[in-house]
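Appendix B. One record, verbatim.
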Amino acid sequence: MWLRRSGGPDPPGGHHRTRLVPNPPFQEFPAMRLTPPSFLVFLISLAIFVYAVLPLAGVALPVLGIPTLYMLIAAYVVLAAGVLFKGI
């Protein structure tokens, strides 16, 4: 809700009447459509996640030289891209 001045001239003393006006509906921007990621994108994201987390559980894997945090961020970005962009 916003406060908006009511119509008419300013009353003596400079006090303005205000009334609550409902927010206008946001029709300018279309609703963002999210799509489920394809199964392949989900599997790629899951594989990156598992490869990043398994060494934390004590499983020995070949080292890529990429920190775990960056791999987890990459898995999330791949999954987010699959949700945000249609056809990926």
